[in-house]
UniProtKB/TrEMBL annotation:
Residues 2-120 form the DUF6314 domain. InterPro entries: DUF6314. It comes from the Bacteria. This is DUF6314 domain-containing protein.
Length: 122
């Protein structure tokens, strides 16, 4: 994690879990965030729905749309606008047990690079 405006780097170490529900998956992530002098617990959650085979729509838990996801070719790029901030994401499948997500976030008060590696627990 890199905050280019504050010239700080950090990391989030945690665990994410997918849980099956009627028409999709619920995802919950909890971890410890260290960024500059800040250290604290963090949580994020999303809903994955599958309107057609091989393609997901990702929503925040309040129902707002976040982005589409299609990893049929092993890579997917997407965009999301959140207030004044633009999020550009790249998802890359690294095999059956790992994937990488890179988000570039730009806005009046943000210039972030979020590079995440997810691995299935053995």
């Amino acid at each position: 994690m890199e905050d280019r405006l504050r010239n700080e780097t950090g990391e989030l170490l945690g665990e994410g879990r997918f849980v099956a529900r009627d028409q999709g998956l619920d995802y919950n992530e909890e971890g410890m965030l260290t960024l500059g002098a800040h250290r604290g617990a963090t949580h994020q959650a999303y809903r994955y729905d599958f309107p057609v085979p091989g393609r997901a729509t990702v929503h925040f838990t309040d129902g707002r749309f976040f982005h589409d996801l299609n990893l049929a070719d092993g890579i997917w790029t997407c965009k999301h606008r959140c207030g004044e901030d633009d999020y550009g994401g790249e998802f890359r499948a690294l095999g059956a047990n790992a994937w990488r997500v890179v988000w570039c976030v730009k806005g009046p008060r943000k210039d972030l690079l979020l590079d995440s590696l997810y691995r299935r627990r053995a």
